[in-house]
Specification:
Distance between the termini: 35 Å
Shape: elongated
CATH superfamily of the largest domain: NIF3 (NGG1p interacting factor 3)-like
Number of domains: 2
Strand content: 25-35%
Length: 254
């Protein structure tokens, strides 16, 4: 497939343009050229030296990641940024990035994937930034407990990280809100929505006190672990377009 055609198709599927003014990540083709051909796409959570080496060794033409190299624009390319960009350029490896668009996609996204993994039903968009969703909410067909949910989440590829729970809400859990990755700032939205448990990747110091004061159950399941779903779903989607894919895993333990 032509690179430009693949990039345009990804942008359309992920609604990339809608998030342009709210995301610190410049999403879409972040590094590379639209003129070319893509036979194989590699997919990974992070754009980092480790995943670049996997992609170069595998001989893929494009790497799609959730976390990119560029954040908040470019002032200069030095140090680690130079090392990463030059590694891509030397290998003629294109980098496509989807940060908040992949978080918010209601079928392919990270929260959607985690909700499906946990058998959440009656899902709806959750976690708004400027009216755009980055998460998902829903319910369980049968009441569950914090311990059972934590046990299910422990099976995710945490890379040695530990699941943390804040048991400040109801013991019988029927409803849930999810924002993957670093979603501590969306606890208020979860409390306002009246859900029984809020699941995210990692927290901040204040999250413990906010959860306790709002009488909310919270589970911290790992930033990396909660954000593998979108990349895996995106790889499956790209396969349906007739392009081969490979998934590169590199759990961080965080």
């Amino acid at each position: 497939m032509k690179t430009a055609q693949l990039v345009d198709r990804l942008d359309a599927e992920l609604d990339t343009a809608a998030y342009a003014d709210v995301d610190a990540s410049p999403n879409g083709l972040q590094i590379g050229s639209r003129s070319g051909t893509v036979e194989t796409v590699g997919c990974a959570v992070d754009a980092a030296a480790a995943t670049f080496e996997f992609a170069i060794s595998a001989g893929v033409d494009m790497l799609c990641t959730h976390h990119g190299v560029i954040w908040d624009g470019i002032e200069r390319i030095t140090g680690r940024s130079y090392d990463l960009v030059s590694k891509l350029a030397r290998a003629e490896l294109d980098l496509y990035v989807s940060h908040l668009p992949l978080d918010g996609h209601q079928t392919l996204g990270n929260a959607a994937g985690l909700a499906s993994y946990l058998d959440v039903t009656s899902t709806s968009p959750f976690g708004e930034i400027a009216g755009l969703p980055i998460g998902q909410a829903g319910q369980f067909d049968q009441s569950t407990s914090l311990d059972r949910l934590a046990s299910s989440l422990e099976a995710l590829p945490t890379g040695g990280g530990q699941i943390r729970t804040f048991p400040f809400g109801p013991s019988d859990i029927k409803t849930v809100a999810i924002v993957t990755g670093s979603g501590a700032d969306f606890l208020d939205q979860a409390a306002t929505a009246g859900v029984d448990v809020y699941i995210t990747g990692e927290g901040k110091q204040k999250l413990y006190h906010e959860a306790r004061e709002r009488e909310m159950n919270v589970i911290l399941s790992g930033h990396y672990a909660t954000e593998t779903f979108g990349i895996e779903n995106l790889a499956s989607e790209i396969e349906q377009w007739g392009v081969d894919t490979q998934i590169f895993t590199h759990p961080t333990g965080l």
